[in-house]
């Protein structure tokens, strides 16, 4: 689904979202309430410029519209793999974006992520995974690493990783596996009229402000040990 269709499903004609290159920014109206919208399109690689553009919108919202909800529309192939961005400090720019989103949450802004197309690697980690909660459309694609790349990094045979992926969501790409692990809170499905506004409305009302991903992963069987390990660390002297 392209971003225009997503915006229509979320807000109808009541939005002022604009595309500037691969960067999306603007506002939408839900039940008369303005929502800051930002994100990317075209499977955007997140480089220094895109990271700073998104962070600027978040910081401007904090300064100028206290408490306004923020919606991140996510479609990215991950970080920009280019010498120029490495020399300019892409790691610091992406960290700045993540810290801006975290600051918004701490200042009382409800921040939601929606993967509407593709979410890969660092471009996803520093956006949707730092929001209060991340949601996805059923047709979205989410992964950190393809199994062939995972095999090269871990030095394990692809056949072994393919077998592990059948039973363990941690090894498998796909939006359903991220739901099972708790990284994606739920899938947003349009209603009979094709609208996503009801799911956005429910998420703004019901999304917890504390991080419950590990607990969700344990309850769903996708991450069986993370919640217990976190609890033990918190209890350690």
TrEMBL record:
GO molecular function: lyase activity
Protein name: Biotin-independent malonate decarboxylase subunit gamma
UniProt keyword list: Lyase
Enzyme Commission (EC) number: 4.1.1.88
Alphabetical list of InterPro entries matching this protein: ClpP/crotonase-like_dom_sf, Malonate_gamma
UniProt enzyme class: lyase
Cited NCBIfam families: malonate_gamma
Organism name: Corticibacter populi
Gene3D superfamilies recorded: 2-enoyl-CoA Hydratase, Chain A, domain 1 (3.90.226.10)
GO biological process: carbohydrate metabolic process
